[in-house]
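User: I'll paste a sequence; please echo it back and then give the predicted structure.

Assistant: Echoing your sequence first, then the prediction.
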Amino acid sequence: SAQASGASISLRSGFVGAPSLLRSSRAAAAWGVGGRREAKHALRMQVEAEMTPDELISKMLEVPAYEMPNIVAANIKAVSQPSFFIKIAERADGADDEGKEKLSALADNVVATLEAVMARTEEKMDDASELVQNLLASAAEENGEFDVPLKPERVAFMRAKVKEQRELIDEGILATVFAYMKKANEDKLEGLVMILQKLLQLWAAEELVAAGAGNEVLERLLKAEESEWDGLLEEAVAAGETDAETMQSAVQSCVERVVLQQASGSHGQRVQAEFLRELLSRL
């Protein structure tokens, strides 16, 4: 568990203010299973489709068998409810012999497919958990412990890891990070929350750099630490490289791109938009 060490401090992140020092790097393992469970639920909610049980059953009766896994995965919440199979039974009661046989076969097929999809989801969540824990480990000291606030060299190392793994950090990975953060908040591991927030900030910055900032000074800020932003902006303005209006326009263009290109309500959109709002507030 997290333990405070030395004088009490208060640090403000671009996402949440949180006081504390974290002294144990083993805390994540204690609640990793709970975090995976929360993230798994988030993933299921993302793929839920808007379709009534009757419409879903009718669609499943029409599609070829090889499309069944995709339909089950896209409607995982609906087909995992007992009421879905009750609806199949109700339709079978009013069907002719051929219809009964098709609906019976459908029920068996859905059960088998559901088990396979859930097993695959478990594997994906295990992979997501492993990647997140590897990213967190990059922030640890040589003795395996975390010191919060993170030292500049640890932040740089974590940024390098995020950049290296950027293409693997998808919505499922972000869901896992948010699930870990929720569990850490519940367990009052404020230091670990701060490290997870830093991970999200670094990911947002690297995503925005990869997408193209469209402004040299803005790209410089994205590659720098939040604590360096004010100084870098002052230097750029003093050197005649930019002004407040130009920077506000550049950041606003990034915000618009995030809103348009990211799925509405997604973790990716939320994290990048929050990061850019914090940057905009400095201008």
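The first helix runs from residue 27 to 46. Strands lie at 10-12, 17-19.
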